[in-house]
Amino acid sequence: MSAEEVSTSPKEYITHHLEHLQINLHNLKIMHENDDTTTFWILNIDSIFFSVVLGVFFLTLFRYVAKSATSGIPGKLQTIIELIINFVDKNVREIYHGKSSVIAPLALTIFVWVFLMNFMDILPIDLLPLIQEYFFSNLPSLRIVPSADVNITLSMAIGVFVLILFYNIKIKGIIGFSKELILKPFNHPVFIPINLILESVSLLSKPISLGLRLFGNMYAGELIFILIAGLLPWWSQWLLSVPWAIFHILVISLQAFLFMMLTIVYLSMASEEH
């Protein structure tokens, strides 16, 4: 979108930045988010693309540091990576009391990956869309913050939910897990239907709250940046965007930390034998 369009139509500017670059798998058609042909078989390919790129960047960076690590005085990059690993490991040891070689790497992956996805919100909102428009002018729109897409956050939450079910069944067995669903909180056969409803709601609320919390905070942060850029003159935007960006660094870090911590807590609860 050109500067002329931004200055004359802030509504179109804001709407444009809230649309995903989508592809309809049914007929392999690149489309707008608000097209009437929207069906279930649609992917937000911008969110998927940036999620994969950031994931590969995370793995490449940590692998490079691990292979080049030294036992002497570490460099700045190695020091930062070691601080992150020690921070995650400390939280896992304090919260998760079971025996699993998966929890710590999972927590590290979640924390760093979610932080990187959130950090995309700090980039100037027009930077990557303008680059995309320059090289691929036929593409309709582009959003660069994967965690501001509810499909991404709920997908990650569903992955955690599958692990919750896996550890519940692995540690307690199918019978033990079933007893938890039908005999808690009221340990009497009469209350089995009520127990099943209460425990099912409690179980399903975990991935829903996990995914929606991250999505809501990141979508709101992205929207504020868009409103600042779309409604204020260019020469005055820094008066609000810079303070908000500084504060938003705390928000994106906190959201990555909360997603990691809740994942550890949920898996710790699932790993309890009684």
UniProtKB/TrEMBL annotation:
<dbReference type="InterPro" id="IPR000568">
    <property type="entry name" value="ATP_synth_F0_asu"/>
</dbReference>
<feature type="transmembrane region" description="Helical">
    <location>
        <begin position="242"/>
        <end position="267"/>
    </location>
</feature>
<comment type="function">
    <text>Key component of the proton channel; it plays a direct role in the translocation of protons across the membrane.</text>
</comment>
<comment type="similarity">
    <text>Belongs to the ATPase A chain family.</text>
</comment>
<dbReference type="Pfam" id="PF00119">
    <property type="entry name" value="ATP-synt_A"/>
</dbReference>
<keyword id="KW-0066">ATP synthesis</keyword>
<dbReference type="InterPro" id="IPR045082">
    <property type="entry name" value="ATP_syn_F0_a_bact/chloroplast"/>
</dbReference>
<keyword id="KW-0812">Transmembrane</keyword>
<dbReference type="GO" id="GO:0046933">
    <property type="term" value="F:proton-transporting ATP synthase activity, rotational mechanism"/>
</dbReference>
<keyword id="KW-0138">CF(0)</keyword>
<feature type="transmembrane region" description="Helical">
    <location>
        <begin position="150"/>
        <end position="169"/>
    </location>
</feature>
<feature type="transmembrane region" description="Helical">
    <location>
        <begin position="214"/>
        <end position="236"/>
    </location>
</feature>
<keyword id="KW-1003">Cell membrane</keyword>
<keyword id="KW-0406">Ion transport</keyword>
<dbReference type="InterPro" id="IPR035908">
    <property type="entry name" value="F0_ATP_A_sf"/>
</dbReference>
<keyword id="KW-0472">Membrane</keyword>
<protein>
    <recommendedName>
        <fullName>ATP synthase subunit a</fullName>
    </recommendedName>
</protein>
<dbReference type="GO" id="GO:0005886">
    <property type="term" value="C:plasma membrane"/>
</dbReference>
<feature type="transmembrane region" description="Helical">
    <location>
        <begin position="102"/>
        <end position="120"/>
    </location>
</feature>
<dbReference type="GO" id="GO:0045259">
    <property type="term" value="C:proton-transporting ATP synthase complex"/>
</dbReference>
<keyword id="KW-0375">Hydrogen ion transport</keyword>
<feature type="transmembrane region" description="Helical">
    <location>
        <begin position="41"/>
        <end position="66"/>
    </location>
</feature>
<dbReference type="InterPro" id="IPR023011">
    <property type="entry name" value="ATP_synth_F0_asu_AS"/>
</dbReference>
<keyword id="KW-0813">Transport</keyword>
<keyword id="KW-1133">Transmembrane helix</keyword>
<dbReference type="GO" id="GO:0042777">
    <property type="term" value="P:proton motive force-driven plasma membrane ATP synthesis"/>
</dbReference>
